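WARN no homologs supplied; continuing
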Amino acid sequence: MTQAGFEFLDHTADVGLRATGASLSELFVHAARGLVALLAEDSAAAPAETRSVTITAESVEDLLSAWLTDVLVWFDAERFLPAAFRLDVVTDTVLRGQVDGERFDPERHVSGVEVKGVTRHQFLVGRTPDGGWEARIIFDV
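OK structure emitted
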């Protein structure tokens, strides 16, 4: 399955995701959209609720892992399904922004893959030859 900014990768027993972006902010948005597509089969969500998010980390890899873990925890613990991402600040160590979404409704949304966590196996964040960004993430399913 290929979408704008992300694609799923073949991986034994788990699910791989390759995300790209012209900027670090765009990369983080595309990675989160890929995770949401796994969780809810790319179901359309409404921007009924806004959440603020601030994350600090020691590296860009740690930041992306923490960001995706937050999105996963919101879904697992509160059934919050993101619809839109507005990331105002994304550096190698800081992410700040807002996420709009709604509660998962089995009448309107399709349950996807049960993602247990973001792994560090083959985890990669780096620059591309054209100056953009690329990440490879493996999700434990």
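Residues 82 and 101 are 4 Å apart (CA to CA).
OK
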